[in-house]
Amino acid sequence: MRPAIAALSGLSILLAGAPALAQSNTAAPADAATPTIPAASPKASVETTTIGDLVDNPKTKAVLQQDMPGLLTYDGLDQIKGMTMRDISKYPQANLDQAALVKIQKDFDAIPSP
């Protein structure tokens, strides 16, 4: 867990370029009371699909490029590939709030099935 925390320390600077998803660092971290965002089908999920799997899939990677471009160029990306989008949203440096997670999930759900 320590490498993941260290990897996330610079995430706010890299993700600051995603103005539609930026939030104040004073926002409370997500907790157990935060509602989950179900995927519409067995598609990608901000709740359960790892960042590594999202980056490896060209369609979900395109969503991340659109919604969180700083994530794909983040120096610590390899260290957080085992985490989900929900996992990294717990860190204020990620600038990833509930509204951003909902938008990303909607974009994942909009990906046509093969």
Walk me through what this model shows.
The protein is mostly helical. The chain has one domain (2-21, 43-109). 46% of the residues lie in helices and 0% in strands. The protein has 8 helices and no strands. Residues 16-30 have low confidence and may be disordered.
The parts where pLDDT drops under 50 for at least 5 residues are: 16-30
Head-to-tail CA distance between termini: 35 Å
Assembly category: single chain
Radius of gyration: 13 Å
Total count of strands: 0
Mean pLDDT: 79
Q: Fraction of residues in helices?
A: 40-55%
Shape: globular
Total discrete domains: 1
Provide a brief overview of the structure:
The chain has 114 residues and is mostly helical. The protein has helices at 2-8, 11-15, 51-56, 58-67, 69-72, 77-80, 85-89, 98-109.
